[in-house]
Specification:
The chain contains 6 helices and 8 strands, in the order ββββαβαβαββααα. An 8-stranded mixed beta sheet has the order 4-3-2-1-5-8-7-6, sandwiched between helices. The longest helix is centred in the C-terminal third of the chain and has 25 residues. This is Class II aldolase/adducin N-terminal domain-containing protein.
Length: about 220
Amino acid sequence: MAGHISLRDPEFPDKFWTNPIGVHFALLEPEDMVLVNEDGEIIGGNTKRSVNAAGFLIHSAIHRARPDVIAACHCHSRFGKAWSAFGRPFEMLNGDAAMFYGEAQAVLASYGGVVFDENLSSPVATALGPKGRGLIMQNHGLLTVGQTVDEAAYLFTLMERCCEIQLLVEAATKEGLEKKCIDEETAKHTCETTSDPDSLYCEFQPDVENEIRFRKLQGYA
């Protein structure tokens, strides 16, 4: 119910498509998507279903603040929720984490409850900043953005894994193991050479192909 994804409309950039409330991502079809305007009114697509009110406020705030953002993903994933309790970014523990080096990773270090007011959604966009591609929302979950749905979705799965790895490493340090992070220069170089939008789009394609094959085998497509 609380997971949502948005896609800025290619013809009307002040409007965006989002998933209807209560439909599992694995069952979502193109005809299920809902088009909403800047006031949250459903103006196209599946007009028979409503959208998540908090989700609309979060995504609309991001799309207004970041004209470069075409798609955004938010979900209360298991490891993302766990790591968000610390209210701090994960460290550059490996090359994958380095895709979120510097301003690419941000933290919203507060939790004001369910986002039913613009006073709670505006801080989300502010925390993400002008260059952020991944946001850890304290005591809440994760949010990622991209120039394509594929980029945003890949970054979300990657960020979730980074949170999982960070939790595993933190647990291992309790046993006396020394943690070593990638140095700043290397992390910066890794980020610059591995995280352009086209590359991140391509990173997600095996997952897309796997999903299509699975749906065909199950008789869904």
